[in-house]
Amino acid sequence: MAEEVLLFGLWASPFSRRVEMALKLKGIQYKYFEEDITNKSPTLLKHNPIHKKIPVLVHNGKPIAESQVILEYIDETWEGHPILPKDPYERANARFWAKFIDEKYLPGIRNALSAEEKQHENAVKEACEVLKHLENEIGEKKYFGGEAIGFVDIVANIIGFWLGITEEISGTKLLTREEFPKLSNWADVFVSSSGIKENLPPRDKLIAYLRTRLGTRSTDASK
Amino acid sequence: MAEEVVLLDFWVSMFGMRVRVALAEKGIKYEYREEDLRNKSDLLLQMNPVHKKIPVLIHNGKPICESLIIVQYIDEVWNDKSPLLPSDPYKRAQARFWADFVDKKVYESGRKLWTTKGEEHGAAKKEFLEILKTLEEELGEKPYFGGETFGFVDVAFVTFYSWFNAFETFGEFSMEAEHPKIIAWAKRCMQKESVAKTLPDQQKVYEFVLGMRKRFLGE
Fold first, then answer.
1. Which residues 24-83 of A have a C-beta within 8 angstroms of B?
2. What is the pTM of this model?
3. ipTM
4. Domains and CATH numbers, chain B
5. Given pLDDT bands bounded at 50, 70 and 90, which one contains residue A218?
């Protein structure tokens, strides 16, 4: 049966890249459509009328939105590199940390990197508490997924790659090697891993892009 | 094998109720432990050190946190009856999308109905009704969000029904008038024993929220 896999994404978005990482790890052929999020295509709006955001995966005409939902769909639909563990308890743990990253880490980091002077110290303290939880979770493992890249690693791409870039732009360093040696090490391993490194946007181009967007203090439109 | 299932919960939490409904659907015996959220037990803090929140399911000594994650865990472990998630991957993705929508939107928006005043309150009411409209459109003519059978999205949203009286009163609207399909769906769910026996009385919930509101607004 002819398989049609389309991905509507944004080159700079970690959420969009998560889906690409999963597709590449599974060896799935897909057609990519670059969206201009300042001028969203009618196709995107048709496929994601509720949130109107990228990424959206369209498989044989049927759309799936929300990066973590898409990752689970990819894992359940295609064989190859497993993304979620088989054991229900480990799956629950993976889902827990993925949720933690998107719901606690992300807003926390945003606050810490953009907070006004008065709230800055507090915001940084809170962000470091979040990073500490992740430092404990990675422990001695090579990846959050164990020996191989898994669900949490893919979702943590925003820590592995995007954090360093936003730190550079804002001038605030949060993920220090002294305070978070294990997480820092994970980030190094992650960005040099096969299946991941090919799917990262060019650093300089991303810095320039984010400088413009963060400069206007707009909230991240993509998820 | 002896199975030990413990639930750390708080009676009025719509998130905790989701787990209770799922456990009931599957016919699982468990020990319910009521937490005093102003004086959390050592067990809760030990089992959920990251968020320190209920609900927490403890299965043979191992904790699972976050209500929808717990419900999926229950569905995967006790997979011999009453499936909550569909078997088709696309339908599962849709179920996860809508459960996520309920999670992201309903609680926060509903909360603003009793924590805000004046102009902010007006905006909150508008936003809340829009969210319900979206859910009503998704439900369409189906008996349940899951289709012909009660499923994941139904579990995720029906527990908010026990809070409807509170939302209506503080939101100053009638759910029946604004979104009759949602009421019809909720009543259909309430015909299921798992739901009827779990959801607390709406009046009791209202009184609880009234108390919270007074403390929050400093009245």
1. 50, 59, 62, 64-66, 68-70, 72-73, 76-77
2. 0.95
3. 0.96
4. 5-77 (3.40.30.10), 89-217 (1.20.1050.10)
5. very low
